[in-house]
Amino acid sequence: MAYETIKSETRGRVGLITLNRPKAMNALSQQMMREICQSAEEFDVDGKIGAIVLTGTEKAFAAGADVKEMETYEYSEAYIHDLWSGWDRMGRIRKPLIAAVGGYALGGGCEVVAMCDIVVAAENAKFGQPEITLGILPGMGGTQRLARSIGKAKTMDLVLTGRMMDAKEAEACGLVSRIVQTTNLLEDALKIAEKIADYSLPAVLAAKEAVVEAFETPLQSGLKHERRLFHASFATEDQKEGMSAFVQKRSAQFKNR
Ligand code: CAA
């Protein structure tokens, strides 16, 4: 499918989505949201793909929702069209989503980062929720996903002051998985994605599903769900292969990748 605001390509068994509105600091327009979700959904059902990387430019992963597009919105328009509910589609992607973040990840950009499963940040990455400076509040899950992942105190600090945090602070509070050199960002993120894409896909999907559950259910239901998925993993040929390979001291050749 032809896209106008993103580039969508494959690198081996990895689907790569590059936000491509560099002049607008990758501001997230409604069209861009639809294209990102569409591309991610295509990779999600593509049997040759095992993980998805989402990235921007060195200067900006995404500087937020497109303020120029939103400037004239009225309440009724935003409410009737349930503005930004379209991002719920990202929450239904079953394959791992890896954000490779360079430069600014602000507002909606930071919220898209928080929708991803692994966040690789360049040393120059900056994160923040500056909506308060625009007279609004985050509307793509910033108050909810961030509070669940980095806690109330840090989320309140970002959301209420509109300040930015650097990659080190974002790693220390748990938003970022790893910090890498700015020049190696994409390469390092792709390596992580390739590694995941080489494992058994049923195991990867179940592992992601189980971790996601931790954010959505009480502990006892989450633990039960994890155990059921764990039990089900013994029905896969990849479990037999993975465990025999370990016992025989060889590397595993998973069939269901
Ligand atoms: N929407 C629309 N355009 C944007 C944008 C945004 N979020 N962010 C940057 N741009 C545009 C600028 O208007 C500018 O366009 P022109 O060349 O046509 O003037 C271009 O990108 C380059 O930006 P700057 O000249 O501002 O670049 P800079 O290096 O001086 O500053 C920046 C970079 C700090 C990211 C600054 O652009 C900025 O603060 N951007 C806005 C950040 C923001 O407020 N984000 C929250 C948006 S609201 C939101 O996301 C709501 C939600 O939760 C869903």
UniProtKB/TrEMBL annotation:
GO molecular function, one term: 3-hydroxyacyl-CoA dehydratase activity
Membrane spanning stretches: none
One GO biological process term: fatty acid beta-oxidation
Reaction(s) catalysed (UniProt annotation): a 4-saturated-(3S)-3-hydroxyacyl-CoA = a (3E)-enoyl-CoA + H2O; a (3S)-3-hydroxyacyl-CoA = a (2E)-enoyl-CoA + H2O
Enzyme Commission designation: 4.2.1.17
Organism superkingdom: Bacteria
Keywords for this protein: Fatty acid metabolism, Lipid metabolism, Lyase
InterPro entries: ClpP/crotonase-like_dom_sf, Enoyl-CoA_hydra/iso, Enoyl-CoA_hydra_C
Similarity field: Belongs to the enoyl-CoA hydratase/isomerase family.
Entry function: Could possibly oxidize fatty acids using specific components.
Protein name (database record): enoyl-CoA hydratase
